[in-house]
Amino acid sequence: MERKSQQRPLRADAERTVRGILEAAERVLGANPAATMEQIAEAAGVARTTVHRRFTSREALVDALTAWATRQFHEAVTSAHPDSAPPLVALYQATANVLRVKIGWGFAMSRTVPEDPEVARAHADVLDQCDQLFRRARDAGVLRPDTDLVWARRVYYALIHEAALDRAERVDEDANDVDELATRVVDTLLRGIGRQGEGGFLGP
Residue 92's closest CA among 179, 188, 1, 192? Predict the structure, then answer.
């Protein structure tokens, strides 16, 4: 029992070190995609040898960074309970959660997904959860009965992407405005930007 209790702090320390390196890599590579391992180590406040011990190459570090961000992306969607929460509530919550990940891990999320089965499974599961949420939203009357769900999902993804880009360009903004941004994304998805009167769109 004593040995196990002594090993846990070491494991926690190692996890904190890796997390610190990944966070530093996101900041440094986001500002300069050509940054070196040495620059990342300096930003993380660790020795260059520590980074090389954890990641055998710069490519391995970027792949690990992408995998980490993908897991955060998956958790962002899953924690919104798209399979059980009221569809509109789940849609707003998932949107806000995903925006935080895409804004906070912009470099990693913009990278090509590595050929990693875990990453592929995470993306596939997010897609399934999104499709399920959109079906539930249609059944609940949040979406029109004739909604093309594949098209709706693609529009939704595009809105989130553009919203994250817009927010990333305003680095001095309060992080709390992500909730307002999520509301704007969902409102645009559900109501569009056209004027709708009693006789339909573009009415009086």
Answer: 179
Residue 38: domain span:
1-55
Number of neighbouring beta carbons within 10 Å of residue 62: 19
Give me the pLDDT at residue 193, please.
82
Asked, for residue 117, whether it belongs to a domain, the answer is yes
DSSP sequence for 77-143: HHTT-TTTS-HHHHHHHHHHHHHHHHHHTHHHHHSPPPS-HHHHHHHHHHHHHHHHHHHHHHHTTSS
Is residue 116 located within the same domain as residue 168? yes
**Amino acid in position 60:** A
Choose the weakest-confidence range: 29-33, 120-124, 165-169, 183-187: 165-169
- How many CB atoms neighbour CB 153 within 10 A? 16
Mean pLDDT within 15-37: 93
Residue 198 counted as domain residue: no
pLDDT in tens, 101-131: 999 999 998 886 667 788 888 989 999 999 9
Dihedral Cα 116, 118, 120, 123, nearest 10 deg = -140
Question: What kind and span of H or E run contains 154?
Answer: helix 149-168
